[in-house]
Amino acid sequence: MADWERTGLLIEHGWLHAVKLAGGRERSPVPTARSWAAGTPAPVAAGEEAVTPPAVPSPDASPPPWREALREARRTLKIEAGCALALPTRDLLIKVLKLPPTDASSLGGMARLQMEKVAPCAGEELSVGYEILAQEEAGVRV
User: Fold this and answer.
1) pLDDT value of position 40
2) CB within 8 A of 137, min separation 6: which ones?
3) Number of domains forming the structure of the chain
4) Can you point out the beta strands (E) in the chain?
5) Rounded to whole angstroms, how far apart are CA atoms 113 and 98?
6) Do residues 83 and 97 share a domain?
């Protein structure tokens, strides 16, 4: 049994890619990597090179939806304690915010409110996450 595990998932060009590392004090980390078709590939932007995804296990099978691909990754890699999910930066809006001094429980709402002002979408289409970069007298940078 592994003493530690790290799992990362990447959603890109209509595929879900997963890498899992498991290791212990007595042995080197053991990597596991898999890919699942997860929908229609995103169009390739002008100037970018098309990415050829790995072969689908069954050529007759239609690609499973995102939900099914994520479930299959969880089952196959035995993801129970969580993992890191990565999205291509072209699909993200990243902004450093300076917020006024506040308690930690209010930061999420404040960050969301500020991101709604600059994001091209709102409501359930917008997902906001934050990380405290610096705690200063004048406020908090997230």
Assistant:
1) 61
2) 101
3) 2
4) 4-12, 15-24, 27-37, 84-86, 98-99, 134-136, 139-141
5) 13
6) no
